[in-house]
Structures are given as structure tokens and as C-alpha cells.
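Section 3.1: Structural characterization of target chains.
Under the original work plan, the team committed to producing a structural model for every single-chain target entering the pipeline before any wet-lab resources were allocated. The record below documents one such target. The sequence was received from the expression subgroup and is listed exactly as submitted; it comprises 233 residues.
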Amino acid sequence: MEDGDTWRPLTVVEASELGWRPSPHGLGNVTRAYDEWTLTSRDQRTYLHLTLGWMNERFEAEWRDIMKGPGYEDSPEPIDIFESRVGMSPSDWAWMTLAGVVRDAVAAYEVYVVKACFEVFRTQGRQTRHGLPPQFPVAREACKMLGVDARPSAVNDIFELRNVLTHQRGELRTEGERQQFSDQDGFWSYLAHLDEARVLQCLDVLAASVDALDPIMWAYSWGQLPAPPLSGT
């Protein structure tokens, strides 16, 4: 950007026209942070699919074995036998697994934003504290200065869900939280509702946000486009 030029935010279309191009084989014109995030996102989806499938098969096998066993008048109920053998209910196990994927997905998104911004800072000659990648709030502010929002409304909803899962273990303490994170009645309305479809939707929203951010981040790093003044601290 020459002296006297007026800087304006770059659009995703303009950034893509400069050469940003993802590739399923990891050979595209993207930030290194994007390549790393792509692998992590793939792992999260594979983990979710395989783990739910394998454990559901294991739980069903346990049920079949219990139901084949001899029954007596004073025998424990099948559900009691199941929990005695397994140690927890399938619904509790599934909830913990799904919550873990949501937490990891948000952490991976934060890592992407931080590392992509760090690539921009290094290209633009901006200093960061101790020469390390910035914290997420700093990276988010840098994104705003580049004309993009690293935490738009849809992403913010997932961040808030992650916070409830992390700091309240899914307990919904206010009416607002219950309206936002549960579609259940009675006791279950006080726990954040999670199922595979909802978690996949979270992953899709985060993926869409990364795809909207990376053309801009690439343009100001590997694309060598001059950026406005940025603060890395």
C-alpha cells in the first residue's frame, strides 16, 4: 500500500482472485494454519463417526448378552445389570463424547485464527509479544482491522455452547441458556442438548467461517498484499 493510498477491506472474492485456492490433497494456495485446521477437522469428524458407531455396536452386544441370560424372580432389572457391567449409561457416554468434540472443535478454530494471524504478522513485519503467536482476543482484533470477523454470530453461539460445556458441564442455569441450548422438557431441559446432528452442524458452521477467513489471511501473508497497521500485542 503506497503512501497516500486509502486502504479498504478486501472481499473474499477479491482475495480468491489473487490466487487463494484450497485443495483436498493439501497442495493448495492457503495458509499453513488452514492446512493444519483441515486435518484436525477431518480427524474430529472421523472420530465422531467411528466412536459413536463402535460404541453403539458394543452397547447393543452387551444388551443382547444380558437379555439372553436366565431370569429369576429376584433378578436385577436388565438396566441395572447393564450399568453394573458397563459402569455408565449409553446416553451419559454419548453426551460426554459429543461435548468433547464440541470443545475440541472450538479450540481448533481458535488455534486456526491465532496461527493464521501470526502468518500475517510475520509477513507484514509486525511484532508479537515474545515473538509468539498472539492470544485469540488479539488475533480477533487483528481480523477486525483486516475487515473480517473471526467470531460472527453463528460462531459466537458455538463459543457460548463451549463455555457452558466447559465451565458448567452443560448445566443450563438461566432461562436464556435453556432456550438457546435445549429443546427438551422437564429435567433434561436443564442440560445442554447434544446429538450427532447438532455437533456436525457446529463443525459445519466453524468450517464455513474458516473458509471465509482464510482467503483474506492468505492474501495478507502468502499473497504479500500490504495490510493496514496491525497490533500483535
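The chain has a mean pLDDT of 90.
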